[in-house]
Amino acid sequence: MENMPKVRVGVVGTGALGRHHARLYAQNPNAEMIGIFDVQQEAAKKVGEEFGLPVFSSLEELADKCDALSVAVPANYHASTVIPLLEMGKHILVEKPIDSSVESARAMCEAAEKAGVVFGVGHVERFNPAMDFLKKDEGKVCFIEIHRMAPYPPARPGMHRRGTEVSVILDLMIHDIDLVLSLIDSEVEKIDVAGIPVLSGSEDIVNARIKFVNGSCANLTASRVSATPMRRVRVFRENSFASMDFGNITGSTVTRRDQSGLVTEEVTLESKNALAAELDDFINAIRLSRKSGEVQKTLVSGRQGLKALELACAIENEARRYNEEYGFKFPLWSPDAMA
Predict the structure, then answer these.
(1) Which string of DSSP letters, residue by residue, matches 200-252?
(2) What's the pLDDT tens digit per position in 166-213?
(3) Which domains are seen in the chain, by residue range?
(4) Which of 31, 43, 77, 300 has the most Cβ atoms closer than 10 angstroms to its Cβ?
(5) Residue 334 pLDDT greater than 70, yes or no
(6) What whole-number percentage of the chain has pLDDT above 70?
């Protein structure tokens, strides 16, 4: 594919994640960074000046000049932003979660399939070097335990705190739901959930136990009201136990049982930029589609993003039922007012 034209790409939304999309596309040798757009034009101008990128005054104007776009706007605006772009025949990478609504997410997948374009979802943890190790490790996954903790996001004048337009399930736990579904090839049998609102108008800390038809089980805890960040994944197989630190290159170990007993070794993880790998995967899927004449999937396709969202929404519904049953009250104030 050496002589193939570069993929002309733009970025929609220039917040915390969109800014990095723009920066990394500009460094990708197979991408031509066309420009950026954000409804908050001042924010877009700052990013444009920082990386020397054109700032477009409308989404349509940017899309007209692009083959593909990254969409990094709040989750509740994903469908309304993405579907028109798909209908224009644009390849799309949308940040996780695919949407805040299963119905809208399904419509996005159908629009992509009808248009015959590449449609990926930005579950960046799939590109984490710790995940690279876990996917290569052998043996049936019997049990997974994940703790994902983060501080409460800072205030943004005139806007909601980042991620708080949805619950912590769709904000943070969705990462781990996707990881679990990629490691356990079985349908969900039942879920048990406890979660409460603390500072937001939706759940800020949630624990979910997921039982699968094949007997495997996953126990997930996600919090956005923690003092210390943590992204720790423990995977138990029939003859081994891996403890992976998704936030650091060091600190991951695997313990195996063999004829001599138990052996524990530190796992050396590859140092890489997971987001850069995700964007490269998206660009390569487009280039391979051009070469083969058939639409290629990204590592996390739209349909996989939809599957993760369906389980996330089921967990969210159980959390709401839990709050109603035990009388935990959502804050009466607006989280937007919490500066």
Answers:
(1) SSS-SEEEEEEEETTS-EEEEEEESS-SS-EEEEEEEESSEEEEEETT-SS--
(2) 889 999 999 999 999 999 999 999 999 999 888 888 889 999 999 999
(3) 7-124+274-301 (3.40.50.720), 129-269+309-337 (3.30.360.10)
(4) 300
(5) no
(6) 94
Interacting residues of 233 by C-beta distance below 8 A, sequence separation 6+: 130, 134, 144, 145, 146, 176, 179, 243, 244, 246
Overall size of the chain counted in residues: 339
Residue 173 neighbours by CB under 8 Å, 6+ apart: 148, 206, 208, 220, 222, 312, 315
Residue 149 CB partners (closer than 8 Å, separation 6+): 221, 222, 223, 226, 228, 229, 230, 231
Reading the block at residue 247, the tokens are 């936030």
- Residue whose C-alpha is closest to residue 230's, from 299, 149, 176, 330: 149
Backbone angles phi, psi at 21, to 5 degrees: -55, -50
Question: What are the start-end ranges of the E strands in the chain?
Answer: 7-12, 31-37, 68-71, 91-95, 119-122, 141-149, 188-196, 205-212, 217-223, 230-237, 240-245, 253-258, 261-266
Q: Report residue 218 as tokens.
A: 């996953």
How far is C-alpha 229 from the chain's CA centre?
17
**Bridge partners (DSSP) listed for residue 91:** 68
Question: How far apart are the C-alpha atoms of 137 and 91, rounded to whole Å?
Answer: 33
Task: Output the six-digit token pair for 61.
Answer: 């104007």
State the DSSP H helix or E strand holding residue 54, giving kind and residue range, or none if neither.
Answer: none
